[in-house]
Write a structure and sequence with these properties.
The chain is α/β, with parallel strands linked by helices and about 130 residues long. It contains 4 helices and 5 strands; from the N terminus they run βαβαβαββα.
């Protein structure tokens, strides 16, 4: 009998501040997820194209490069609709922003235990889909 456990989706962390990115990667790995990380949207898109196990995008909004985190989230929503999106920011007021449908937003600093719980919930939903 061959029984395989469901492997949770990988998470792509996109954050331009190295220390914050490392903390986020550690937090998500500690929650049991495989993690890829990128410092900007351009690198994130390359990783999305290379790794089909990415099921969750965890992105900051305020980033340098060709697009910020909101534009990246919209691009990922259009190109990879099944990918769950979590957006975090310490500077942005969401009232003036268009968040892609189904996305979750967390202000920084985000509560580690809450992020881990949300990731687990998203992983369960993705495995049921």
């Amino acid at each position: 009998m061959n029984i395989t456990a469901h492997v949770p989706p990988a998470v792509l962390v996109v954050e331009d501040e190295p220390l914050i990115r490392m903390e986020a990667v550690d937090m998500i790995e500690d929650a049991g997820f495989k993690v890829y990380d990128a410092s900007n949207a351009d690198a994130a898109i390359i990783l999305m194209e290379l790794h089909d196990d990415i099921g969750i995008l965890f992105t900051d909004i305020d980033m340098p490069g060709s697009m910020d985190g909101m534009k990246l989230a919209a691009y990922v929503r259009d190109r990879w609709p099944p990918v769950a999106i979590i957006i975090a920011s310490g500077k942005v007021d969401l009232k003036d922003m268009h968040v892609p449908e189904g996305s979750k937003f967390f202000p920084k600093p985000y509560p580690t235990e809450h992020i881990a719980q949300i990731l687990g919930d998203i992983a369960k939903q993705l495995q049921l889909a």
